[in-house]
Amino acid sequence: MKILIDIGHPAHVHYFRNFIKIMENKGHSFLVTARDKEVAHSLLNNYKIIYIDRGKGYKSLLGKLIYMFKADFLLLKLSLKFEADVFLSFSSPYAAQVAWFLRKSHIAFDDTEHAKLEHMMYVPFTDVVLTPKCFQKDFGKKHIRFNSFMELCYLHPNYFTPDPSVLELLGVEKGEKYVILRFVSWRASHDMGHTGISIKNKIKAVKGFSKYGRVFISSEGELPEGLKRYQIKIPPEKMHDALAYASLLFGESATMASECAVLGTPAIFLDNDGRGYTDEEENKYGLVFNFTESLEDQQKSIQKGIDLLSIDNIKKEWQKRRDKMLSEKIDANAFIIWFIENYPRSVKIMKVNPEYQYSFR
Q: Measured between alpha carbons, how far is residue 152 from residues 105, 124, 220, 345, 347 in Å?
């Protein structure tokens, strides 16, 4: 089978990297296209995944529209040469539109309910939309839910064991408390209207958390001068190891909050829209704490972080909660491999008997 995968964000590299390697070993071939966003290309290079650069994209709505035509044309040209049998992506309008034009199947993954513009641009051109079971939106007949999280594609114990050598890179001792703060740029099309955590409260969080352990900051944008010395300096592929040994994650990234949940690290997530998966990770498993971006909630979230850091042996409790979560979730990667290899018959199986997915533990 010839499979084209379009990558639009560093997280998408992680969603697909194990899938690609396993499927290649089974004899399938891939064409990977990737937007030059943050560390996406660096991650692809690290995992030795060959890809074609489709550019950086644009920030304005007009620029995004222009870029859509350019990206569609590039993918069309590459697809015709590659002769793809099926297109895969995490909500890529470019892969969806080109697949539709070529009368090929596009199978999309999604876990972001409020990405309305992306939904308008890719769903009509997509054959199947696969989402976690907790996804709080309905795409109708083409929607199939699986009982897992996207982060389990790469952080499930079947695929990931944290490497303690990251502690040396961070300059912390084994067992020493440290906190990772994550700030996003709010430049995605579904982030319009968001303000995030104020600079004043970022500084307040750093000062408050520093009383309990080391503080490291991962930021998409430029940090204020007073916070630059906290910037984390490790290779991007080591971030999950750092999250696994952290005492707390505090920030604006839903993906990193969920990564911490599946790793057994307490996480605080601030966002006005929220996510179905972080809601479930809080309400069902007690692994994540969700707050809005309001100034009041920013204050509450900082205090919550201090409260969590004050608890001795909190990681042991979180590992128990994580184990409960893992016992109820399927191996997302194994499920996706089965679904693609058996497509389109797999669609019928999931429609008739959705419990079949529990074969993939």
A: 25, 27, 23, 24, 21
Locate the domains of the chain by residue range: 2-148+330-359, 166-327
Place of tokens 């290779």: 235
DSSP string over 26-84: TT-EEEEEE---TTHHHHHHHTT---EE-----SSHHHHHHHHHHHHHHHHHHHHHHT-
pLDDT the model gives residue 191: 47
Q: Do domains 2-148+330-359 and 166-327 have the same CATH topology?
A: yes
The count of C-alpha atoms lying within 13 angstroms of the C-alpha of 86, restricted to the half-sphere facing its C-beta, is 16
**Low-confidence stretches of the chain (pLDDT beneath 70):** 186-194
Q: The domain 166-327: what is its CATH number? A: 3.40.50.2000
First to last CA, the chain: 25
Domain 2-148+330-359, classified CATH 3.90.950.20, yes or no:
no
What does the chain come to in residues?
361
Per-residue model confidence (pLDDT) at position 189: 47
Q: Which residues contact 234 (CB under 8 A, 6 or more apart)?
A: 166, 169, 170, 242
- Maximum CA extent, the chain: 59
Structure tokens at 89: 């992506």
